[in-house]
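[Discussion] Sanity-checking designs against the backbone

I'm trying to build intuition for which residues belong where. Below is a structure token string of 97 positions. I'd appreciate it if someone posts a full sequence so I can compare it with mine line by line.
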């Protein structure tokens, strides 16, 4: 099944540049994106339409994507959204005592 996205909803991001994609998602949907490593690193290799696709990323590469965001945006994407989803009122509750 192929998913089609209406042109007005498509990101103008360079989709092989995760930093650009995450930045544009954070701009378009303020307060919505959430960052977290997948496995702790993503590695996906597939054969699509007769061509190999390799999306191999180390944890450091994924973290670099997060740290490419401005500090205020990074805090929303990596902390505030997690706290909101966890229904935790104070960050200190997540810290070891």
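Best answer:
Here's mine. Compare freely.
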């Amino acid at each position: 099944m192929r998913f089609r996205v209406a042109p007005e909803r498509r990101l103008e991001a360079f989709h092989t540049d995760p930093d650009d994609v995450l930045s544009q998602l954070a701009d378009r949907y303020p307060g919505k994106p959430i960052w977290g490593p997948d496995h702790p690193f993503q590695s996906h290799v597939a054969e699509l339409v007769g061509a190999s696709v390799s999306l191999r990323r180390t944890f450091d590469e994924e973290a670099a994507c997060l740290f490419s965001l401005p500090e205020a945006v990074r805090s929303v994407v990596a902390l505030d959204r997690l706290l909101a989803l966890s229904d935790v009122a104070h960050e200190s509750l997540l810290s070891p005592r």
